[in-house]
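queue> pop job 88
queue> type: inverse folding (structure -> sequence)
queue> payload:
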């Protein structure tokens, strides 16, 4: 079929149980070859108002009357329905992001289903505080807290793990009885709309889950965050965007939960299991083409094994297959957009200007086919930069790391902590005492020892400094998405 003669797919807003067009549309591109895969309906201020109104109305409907057991049952149905449509979700996610089909099948889509199951189960078993309070007259009082929904939650998410990160917020918000208006990234709108179909099939009442598509400033993102009838905003994305949203919501003093950027360090000690460390760091640097907030961009290696480690990581990086996301053997797909590739390439140029030695990569791969129209870069490793270099300080968000040597544990800890971010760290050592000692000194939300990206969804997840505000996961999510009302009874 000739290009242009094909009917393009439409990705619509979902408001009050209806799929809705907007006055304007924008193109959804496949980053693997730059082709247009769909036209997306942009929500203007009027549609965002409609979505918030629908969400507020749904709080007063059957959803608001259901108890925890009924809500949890529905959330399990949502998880089941995601699995029934597993291949559709994988295809949509791969087309939007360019991530390898293997990755979407093993990580993104299974985790989306798991998010609904975990939070359905956590809410069912969550207890509440209760205190018997002694009073001077000896009659005493009983205090107990009840959990109530916050109301309408505005959810704004990025493009790197679109469905995974969206459901990480939607599932606990719904488990707590809220209704939501979600604004997925303009780069990856497909799976949020697909999830709307699943919500309908699973019997989630109209208005409980709404989707508005669009951009940030002066578009759906900003219309949602500044909306007076939105009770809380939860956001994952860049630190600068978090700062802008914080200003917007300040006027109405809304609670915010922010999962932001990172410049994560890995500390590799000479006593590590060498092969495990090389494989682990390679995954931590290059998974999802380096586009995971938890990815490692700074690697510190004890001097005794520095040269050997750099050589082994170089061989590993050069063995990774960069290519079509649809090939099962592909390790790395493209970056998300030409704009993001330009940003990553600007850091590649900057690294050279700052005096880096290029161990491998630093450019754009050539395929000799349609993939040359995609937004690919090579897996890249640098050494030789001072700790003050911008490439060591700023988040690049691509398949790239800088490797530097250290001499003592104290020096390694101090270099790892010398950042304005504070999301994640990993430590590679077979010395148990050192593992605990160093892990506890990391100024981050999550430290892994001899592993990376191993997640138990009940544990606290979040960052310090520029990496965010608050914690999500298990009870931490429930506490953000609930209003606690303490009741004090004089006995
Ligand atoms: P981004 O901040 O550019 O965009 C994220 C979302 O915010 C998009 O939906 C966008 O449309 C919206 N947005 C932008 N400006 C807005 C505004 N003024 N008001 C309201 N909404 C606005 O982030 P991105 O480029 O999509 O994602 C990559 C970033 O996300 C990286 O910095 C990465 O580290 C971070 N991230 C963090 C985590 C975490 O858990 N800490 C997870 C994934 C990604």
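queue> result:
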């Amino acid at each position: 079929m000739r290009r242009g003669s094909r009917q393009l797919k439409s990705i619509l807003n979902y408001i009050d149980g209806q799929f809705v067009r907007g006055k304007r549309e924008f193109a959804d591109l496949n980053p693997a070859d730059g082709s247009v895969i769909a036209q997306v309906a942009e929500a203007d201020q009027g549609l965002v108002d409609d979505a918030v109104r629908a969400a507020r109305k749904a709080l007063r409907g059957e959803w608001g009357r259901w108890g925890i057991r009924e809500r949890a049952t529905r959330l399990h149905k949502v998880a089941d329905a995601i699995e029934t449509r597993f291949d559709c979700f994988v295809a949509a996610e791969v087309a939007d992001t360019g991530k390898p089909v293997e990755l979407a099948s093993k990580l993104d889509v299974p985790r989306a289903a798991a998010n609904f199951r975990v939070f359905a189960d956590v809410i069912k078993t969550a207890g509440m505080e209760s205190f018997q309070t002694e009073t001077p007259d000896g009659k005493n009082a009983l205090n107990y807290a009840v959990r109530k929904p916050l109301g309408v939650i505005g959810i704004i998410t990025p493009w790197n793990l679109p469905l995974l990160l969206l459901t990480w917020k939607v599932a606990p918000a719904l488990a707590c009885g809220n209704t939501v208006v979600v604004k997925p990234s303009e780069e990856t709108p497909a799976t949020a709309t697909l999830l709307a179909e699943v919500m309908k099939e699973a019997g989630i009442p109209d208005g409980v889950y709404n989707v508005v598509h669009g951009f940030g400033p002066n578009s759906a993102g900003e219309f949602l965050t500044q909306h007076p009838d939105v009770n809380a905003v939860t956001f994952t994305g860049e630190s600068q965007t978090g700062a802008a949203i914080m200003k917007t919501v300040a006027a109405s003093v809304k609670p915010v939960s922010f999962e932001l950027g990172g410049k994560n360090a890995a500390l590799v000690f000479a006593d590590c299991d060498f092969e495990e460390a090389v494989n682990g760091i390679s995954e931590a640097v290059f998974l999802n083409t380096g586009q995971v907030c938890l990815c490692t961009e700074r690697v510190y290696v004890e001097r005794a094994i520095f040269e050997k480690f750099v050589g082994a990581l170089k061989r590993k990086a050069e063995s990774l297959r960069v290519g079509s996301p649809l090939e099962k053997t592909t390790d790395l797909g493209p970056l998300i957009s030409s704009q993001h590739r330009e940003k990553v390439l600007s850091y590649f140029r900057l690294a050279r200007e700052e005096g880096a030695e290029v161990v491998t990569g630093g450019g754009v791969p050539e395929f000799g086919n349609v993939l040359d129209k995609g937004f690919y870069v090579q897996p890249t490793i640098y050494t030789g930069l001072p700790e003050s270099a911008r490439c060591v300080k700023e988040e690049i968000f691509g398949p790239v790391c800088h490797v530097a040597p250290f001499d003592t544990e104290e020096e390694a800890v101090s270099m790892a902590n010398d950042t304005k971010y504070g999301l994640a760290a990993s430590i590679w050592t077979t010395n148990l005492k050192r593992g605990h000692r160093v892990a506890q000194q990391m100024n981050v939300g999550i430290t892994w020892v001899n592993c990376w990206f191993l997640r138990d969804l009940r544990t606290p997840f979040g960052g310090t400094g520029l990496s965010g505000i608050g914690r999500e996961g298990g009870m931490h999510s429930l506490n953000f998405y609930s209003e606690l009302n303490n009741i004090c009874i004089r006995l």
